[in-house]
Write a structure and sequence with these properties.
Length: 326
């Protein structure tokens, strides 16, 4: 009996000891660690890449060292000559050669620049200068403005190399816009009767105004209907963009801000997008709901009340004020 136990113990020690050794090969490989992966899942990725000998041993080591729950996503330059302990330590410290960064729908160029700076992946000032004023510098398969690229930096999650120049990051975001918007939706854009720039501009208003998904095609319908009737859009999102800062509530005095983006003062669409819209808002701009609404007002929960006449709209505003006062 003791012999069997001893053999099992020796086998376990041998297996554990073998996992402490490097995989034995030279060279380096870049391994991408996705978000929200367990130590076992990361071990399988590393084993499949030839960086470690055993995914099971990696999981055991991660648990023993207490680093199993602190392994950070990103792209890592690793070598099979590294010990598994060294690999775990590098991933736990987050010593990436590339990092996953998410830019949400509705972010402006300024917000994207600030997030890049906060992540240590670029200079906010340089990014803002290129994306905000240097559109002519970039070559794409679709037409875009010669100055500001607002609206064309597609919101998504990107794996960005540490030390990559700002123009490369902008180029990657423009390429993503081409793959996900300009190319697959080319026929829809052509049928809409709008230019790509008009579609993106309209979508940016929808993105900033809609707080829940089901309101997107309805808000799109209101904007389309008002444009057809030569009514000013009177869209708060354009006022906030003109002000250059976010506010939870737009005041009457804000409506007088002197800017071509202020749709309370100027007819038609603003000269360009007020944010970078996601795919859902772009599709809503192309396919508005078939309704006769001309007005909407936001409720405290972020949803909207839609109306066909000014009288209905005034009643809706009173209801919303009562809801907000509760």
């Amino acid at each position: 009996m003791w012999t069997a136990v001893a053999l099992v113990a020796l086998l376990a020690l041998w297996l554990l000891g073998s996992t402490l050794l490097p995989a034995g090969r030279v060279g380096t490989v870049v391994v991408q660690i996705p978000r929200d992966k367990s130590a076992g899942e990361i071990g399988r990725i590393l084993a499949a890449s030839g960086v470690i000998r055993s995914s099971f041993g990696f999981r055991v080591l991660a648990r023993v060292t207490g680093k199993g729950t602190g392994l950070k996503p990103g792209a890592y330059e690793l070598s099979p000559s590294m010990t598994p302990l060294a690999v775990i330590d590098k991933i736990a410290r987050g010593e990436v050669c590339a990092r996953w960064v998410t830019f949400p729908e509705g972010f402006t160029i300024r917000q994207i620049a600030e997030r890049l700076d906060a992540e240590g992946l670029g200079s906010a000032l340089r990014f803002w200068g290129l994306a905000g004023y240097g559109g002519a510098y970039f070559r794409t398969s679709f037409p875009h403005p010669a100055k500001s690229l607002e609206g064309y930096l597609f919101p998504d999650t990107y794996l960005l190399s540490v030390g990559a120049p700002e123009d490369a990051i902008i180029g990657e975001m423009l390429d993503c816009f081409g793959r996900k918007v300009a190319t697959p939706l080319a026929a829809d854009i052509s049928r809409s009767g709008m230019s790509l720039h008009e579609v993106v501009t309209l979508a940016s208003l929808i993105e900033r105004e809609a707080k829940i998904p089901k309101d997107r095609p309805l808000i799109s319908a209101v904007l389309h209907n008002r444009l057809r009737r030569n009514m000013r859009l009177e869209c708060d999102a354009t006022v906030l963009y003109a002000l250059g800062r976010h506010k939870n509530r737009v005041l009457y005095k804000d409506l007088d801000v002197d800017s071509p983006y202020n749709t309370y003062l100027h007819d038609g669409l603003p000269p360009g997008p007020v944010a970078n819209p996601g795919l859902a808002s772009i599709k809503a701009a192309l396919h508005p709901a078939s309704v006769g609404y001309l007005y909407y007002v936001a409720r405290p929960d972020g949803s909207h009340v839609f109306s066909r006449t000014m009288a209905e709209h005034q009643r809706a505003r009173q209801i919303v004020r009562r809801e907000a006062a509760r």
